[in-house]
Design a protein that fits this description.
With 230 residues, this protein is mainly alpha-helical. It has one domain. Helix content is 73%, strand content 3%. The chain has nine helices and two strands, in the order ααββααααααα. The chain has a two-stranded antiparallel sheet. A hairpin with a 2-residue loop joins strand 1 and strand 2. The longest helix has 31 residues. The mean pLDDT is 88.
């Protein structure tokens, strides 16, 4: 079963690399968001308050946009691709083969997690080179674990979304409709201290805030210890 899941993951990865639309929304869009937000709000020595002190606004947006990249790879892209496969009869044909359903699900999750890890590495590198934002060495493991756990969690949510999306054309708009408002109230596009208290309380209910906060804990220089945020 594990061997089959790894094999199917390779197939899903090749399919992803051949899909230009998926590549743009998953890989290019987070990079554009980082450049735009860090350039617009991060200049002139602007700083953002975080627990334990303050960091430059450019540094703040690196872990925030990493959270966006993980969600795009594992929630939006997975929901769209699985819905498309369901509507085209691909999943039905696979169920007619001896391949276990668990292998099909796990193979798609492995692909999404791998893409999320690559996305996080690209954004880390861009933040380091362009904005001088680097992750402390003692918290690097916590950052990596947070990316993987967050990716797996949003894969589960992506599969859950496919159960209520009725057609292929509605999958990506539905994912964006769920996520865009949450990005604004969860500390991704706007720092939590700058939000009205009632909006911040609403954002606390949803998982986007917790992924962004855990990544920020592992990223900021004020963090004591290894940076794991349960």
């Amino acid at each position: 079963m594990i061997r089959m899941a790894v094999y199917l993951s390779g197939y899903e990865l090749r399919a992803f690399l051949r899909n230009r639309q998926s590549q743009f929304f998953t890989l290019a869009l987070p990079v554009l968001f980082l450049v735009i937000f860090a350039s617009v709000f991060g200049g002139s020595g602007n700083r953002t308050r975080v627990a334990g002190g303050s960091i430059s606004t450019s540094e703040y947006y690196v872990p925030s946009i990493i959270a966006l990249g993980v969600i795009a790879a594992c929630f939006g892209n997975l929901a769209a691709s699985v819905t498309a496969q369901r509507e085209r009869g691909v999943l039905k044909r696979r169920r007619a083969t001896p391949v276990p359903a668990g292998s099909v699900i796990a193979g798609r999750v492995l692909t999404a997690v791998l893409v999320a890890v690559v996305m996080a590495a690209v954004l880390l590198g861009l933040g380091w080179i362009a904005y001088g934002a680097h992750v402390p060495g003692r918290t690097a493991l916590a950052l990596a674990v947070t990316v993987v756990v967050g990716a797996a969690s949003f894969c589960c949510l992506g599969y859950a979304l496919t159960s209520i999306v009725r057609n292929e054309d509605a999958a990506l708009p539905a994912a964006m409709a769920f996520m865009l408002p949450l990005y604004f109230i969860s500390g991704v596009f706007v720092a939590v201290p700058a939000l009205p208290r009632w909006l911040a309380d609403i954002g606390e209910i949803f998982p986007v805030r917790h992924l962004a906060s855990a990544l920020l804990v592992a990223y900021k220089p004020h963090t004591a210890g290894l940076g794991f945020a349960g």
